[in-house]
Amino acid sequence: MPDKTLHLAAALDGLGWHPAAWRLSRADPGVALTARWWAALAGEAERGALDAITLEDSLDLQSTRPDGTDGRTDQLRGRLDAVQIAARVAPLTRHIGLIPTTSVTHTEPFHLSTAVATLDHVSGGRAGWRPRVSARRSEARHFGRRDIPPLDPNRLDEPDAVHRVGDLFAEASDAVEVVRRLWDSWQDDAVIRDEPTGRFVDRDRLHYVDFTGRWFSVKGPSIVPRPPQGQPVVAALAHSSVPYAFAARHADVVFVTPTDAGHAASIVAEVRASEDTVGRTDPPLRVLADLVVLLDDTPSAARRRRAHLDELDGAEFTSDAATFTGTPAQLADLIADWHRAGVDGFRLRPAALPDDLGAITRALVPALRDRGLFRAGYPGGTLRDLLGLPRPTNRYATAATA
Questions:
Q1: Residues annotated within a binding site for FMN
Q2: Where does the Luciferase-like domain start and stop, copy by copy (predicted)?
Q3: For residue 131, which of 104, 156, 226, 372 is within the disulfide window of CB 3.0 to 4.6 Å?
């Protein structure tokens, strides 16, 4: 029988990943700035028993340019804060994981740790977090604390670009390390509520993290008690060796961008090699393949829909991830093929919302269940439980009892 541990997530962004999606969506364009939109999308994803939704975010406006605004007014611009969307959706859902994206380049890790820990508390242990490197000069200019020289996407193999990208990921590594230490800075049993002695917390079970590095100096402890999951799930998007290594050191889940089954197998092998190189001791990364999906009842209808979207946008759609255009049954066959190649699951990016998300939950998921590839519902528990990840031991509690 096929392995039933296939994981499915939906990546949600605005009105869909195709830049002309807003022109075909049944929803009013302004709805993406309302809580009810995100609640409806999360509810639909949960009806399909997806493991998680991810919420995109950045520190500057959406743009077709690699750096800076493009001046276009025919594409969706503007978004809500991903962490706050997740916090609003949390009490309206029961099972699905919530993984917001945040920048670690211009945001203090102390603030990030408290925001994601709070999300884990209010969701009952369903929080995740995707730390994102901000390599754009336009993002840095919003803060005025540092200058990031422009990076040419076509010259990233030049020594200066390699050095700057390496610095950004080294800073991201320190940020995630600080966040993880802060999540552990309260032991699970630090809150004692001992009325006879008048002590609400046991101060000996709160710990300084005492992190000093090139970019951060953080004393701790956190102001938020340890999250229900101990450590919320950390996810990373990776396209090449440097982010693969970053994920191997710091993440629980890695989103990758194969083009076919053979490429998927080679990426999985590279990710596993990165885990060996960095000496990973945590459970192996859950490797999820990203796909932009545009679905319809027939292959020709899906192609016509994509052609119409491209026509409205004035250009053929391109993405960092492969794009699938076809029927849910065809997508189920592709998923089975790539799953056999070694990926643990998929993060599907709906091209246009809400239609493509509905096709995922109401047609693709049943097709995967018919093939024995996906569970019938939620087994209960935290996001870590859904992903088959153990609850980590608190590093400071271990040190205190050693």
A1: 57, 101, 163, 240
A2: 39-339
A3: 104
